Amino acid sequence: MNLFVTGAATTKFGELWNASPRGLARHAVFEALKDAEADATRVQALFVGNMLSGMLGGQEHLGAFFAEELGLSVPAFKVEGACASGGLALHNAVNALLSGQYETVAVLGIEKMTDHKPEDVATALMGAGSEEERAAGATFPGLYAMLARIHMREYGTTEEALANVAVKNHFHASLNPNAQFQNTITVSQVMKSSRIADPLKLLDCSPISDGAAAVVLSSKKIKRGIQIVASTVATDSLGLAQRKKLTELSATRTASQKAYAIAGITAKDVDVAEVHDCFTIAEVLATEDLGFFSKGQAAAAIASGKTTLGNGKHVVVNPSGGLKGCGHPVGATGVKQIVELVEQLRGVAGKRQVNKASVGLAHNVGGSGATAVVHILRK
Q1: Residue 205: beta bridge partners?
Q2: Residues with Cβ < 8 Å from 50, sequence gap 6 or more?
Q3: Closest Cα to residue 103, out of 190, 2, 204?
Q4: What is the pLDDT of residues 90-131, one digit of tens each?
Q5: Are 212 and 108 in contact (CB under 8 A)?
Q6: For the chain, how many structural domains are there in total?
Q7: Of 16, 120, 266, 354, which alpha carbon lies 20 to 30 A from 230's?
Q8: Which residue among the candidates 83, 205, 278, 326 is catalytic per the annotation?
Q9: pLDDT at residue 88 tops 90
């Protein structure tokens, strides 16, 4: 697959009260173009990943909206897939390049969430759940809490082990100047934080965030270009009740197995991974379903430091801080993951640099696992 990320950039993530969606988009896209050593005239199409603009901002027509703001008179598309919107936008951009219709395209992931009431955001996010789950009053913390309880029952996973996921990702985020949270935390602090949906506590949950990320993709490599060697998507049932197993997200397993086959690698070849840790249990499930650990082994492995920066032997997971530490502006997350991998594979990630990273994996999930997107990059 002769496709390359030639430019990548992200805004800071967090509660960005003074930033507008227009301003966030300009910053991310123009910085990505600068990184690609290209100007806007090179862009032949724009793909925008976003989930909530219609429900929260009253604007659904984001392709044209941001093309106009960026001064691009090109085909522009909004792509929505819940929290996997960014990853799906990238997947669609990859396919557009593979078709031969374009040579250079831009992908923007963006979300502005903190301008709205938390209860309105929670209601909007449940638009990614099933009708039955919404009718029952379920929320995503509640759905993932059920997954956590089942994992605990089946494999003996503990709340303390889950807390270590948050501790690790806050540590990584403290090394990332663009992360929403710059502070480290302890297992004790996680355990003492308010219960949101038992057994998940406040510090087990990713935050509501604002932010944008952008990449420039091209079929022509430049000196600093990072190759995309696989881009896959898999789909499962919208609701948990229809799943065959609740100790895994089968869409993740399917998408990753396809991606490994396309790339000609196995999970053991991945040096650095950005995975979808919307809740601490989500990272445990992801690292098992991606094949980094056997079923029931991930929580203890993460707690022992196997996926932390500096481990020297195993894949480093979420060096950006993940959704938990870096923040989770839902439409931007999947693109931000790619920005992080590009920096890691270029060797320019600073204090959070993974030693000798040459293969990176991004894993983006929509809903409670109804959509999974996997990208594999190689320098």
Answers
A1: 279
A2: 62, 78, 79, 80, 85, 109, 110, 111, 331
A3: 2
A4: 999 999 999 999 999 999 999 999 999 999 999 999 999 999
A5: yes
A6: 1
A7: 354
A8: 83
A9: yes
Predicted TM-score (pTM) of the model is 0.97
Q: Is 205 a catalytic residue?
A: no
In a domain, 290, yes or no: no
Q: How far is CA 6 from CA 104, 171, 227, 235, 340, in A?
A: 9, 29, 9, 29, 13
Q: Which of the following is catalytic: 91, 170, 328, 363?
A: 328
Kindly state the average pLDDT of the residues 230-255: 97
Does 295 reside within a domain? no
At which residue do the structure tokens 């997971």 appear?
Answer: 317
**Residue pLDDT, tens place only, 188-241:** 999 999 999 999 999 999 999 999 999 999 999 888 899 999 999 999 999 999
Q: Show Cβ contacts of residue 233 under 8 Å, excluding neighbours closer than 6 positions.
A: 87, 88, 91, 255, 371, 372, 373, 374
| Residue 21: inside a domain | yes
Residue appearing with tokens 């557009």: 96
Query: CB count, 10 Å around CB of 312?
Result: 8
Which residues form the domain of 64? 4-117+208-218
140 falls within a domain = no
Handedness of CA 172, 15, 279, 294 (dihedral sign): negative
CATH of residue 90's domain is: 3.40.47.10
- pLDDT value, residue 224: 86
How far apart CA 61 and CA 245 sit, in angstroms, is 37
Question: Distance between CA 209 and CA 227 in Å, rounded?
Answer: 29
> pLDDT tens, 48-82?
999 999 999 999 999 999 999 999 999 999 999 99
Whether the Cβ atoms of residue 302 and residue 161 lie closer than 8 Å to each other: yes
